[in-house]
Amino acid sequence: KTADDHVRNEKFNCINSCTAIKLHVFKDYRYDENLFLDQIDHDFCRSQRLLGRQFYKFPLIIEHNFSLKNQLPSVAVVKRRYELLIPDFLIYCRKQGVLKYCMAYVKIFAWGIEQSRKYKDWSILPWMMQYALRKG
User: In terms of pTM, does the model score above 0.85?
Assistant: First the structure.
C-alpha cells in the first residue's frame, strides 16, 4: 500500500488516535460505552457510514505498532490481550445482527488457530473458544 492508495468509503476504517474529526460530528454522536478497545474505532466508522458521511484519507502513511501483530512475551500475555478483545468484538458484532454475531465465533476460531500456530501452543485455541462462549 502507498500513501496515495484510494480506499472506498464503504471499506474505510481508521483508528481514532490517527483521526481528525469535525466537531459537528459529535453533536448527535456518542461513543458506545459498552465497547472498550479496538471495536470503538470500527463502530465509529460504521455509524458514520450509516449516516452517509464521507471519509477523506490524507496521502500519508502513519506507522502504528499494532500489538496483535507483534510477538508478545508469553502465552499468558496473549490470553490477557484476548480477554479484552473477545468480549469487545462480540458486543460489536452483536450490534450488527445475528449473522454477524455468529460469524464472530468463526473469526475468534481463526484467531485461536493463528495464535496457536504463532506460539506453537495448541492450548490457545480451545481456551479462546471456551472464553468466547462464556463471554458471549
Answer: no
